[in-house]
Amino acid sequence: MTLSDVRAILEKDYQKHYNNVIMYNNYNIDKAYEYIQQQTGCDIDIAKRIVDEMNYKKQQIDKSTIKCPYCNSTSVVKITKSSKAVRTFLFGIFALSRNSKNFHCNNCTADF
Q1: Whether this model's pTM surpasses 0.85
Q2: CB atoms inside a 10 Å sphere around CB 29
Q3: CA angle 30, 49, 4 (to 5 degrees)
Q4: CA–CA distance, 36 with 34 (Å, rounded to integer)
């Protein structure tokens, strides 16, 4: 079985397989390899490559997620330019400290 055959099998329900591999990988990487082998019937080398690809994808997703530096929450919103303009209009020079920030945490209410 080739790598492209395995990818085709996994594509049918990718999110389920991805979640299971990441879950197994957190505890025991051999379980993740075994899961891929059971689902697709491939050999260990292809299973390792698939798990590596899924881990790389998870790392890319984790990097792109903005987290609050104070509480590590992902419940973060971007402070818009219009919001900054309204604050500057209403509060003048006192709004400058917040206007230098780009994000607001909904959990701990910090601006960063």
Answers
A1: no
A2: 15
A3: 130
A4: 5
Question: What whole-number distance in Å separates Cα of residue 40 and Cα of residue 51?
Answer: 13
Q: Helices 29-40 and 44-64: crossing angle, nearest 10°?
A: 120
Q: How far is residue 56's CA from residue 59's CA, in Å, rounded to a whole number?
A: 5
Predicted confidence at residue 45, as pLDDT, reads 93
Residues 64 and 72: their CA atoms lie apart, in Å, by 14
CA distance 97 to 87: 11
**For residue 108, what are its two tokens?**
């701990």
Note the pLDDT tens digit of each residue in 63-83.
Answer: 768 888 999 888 888 888 888
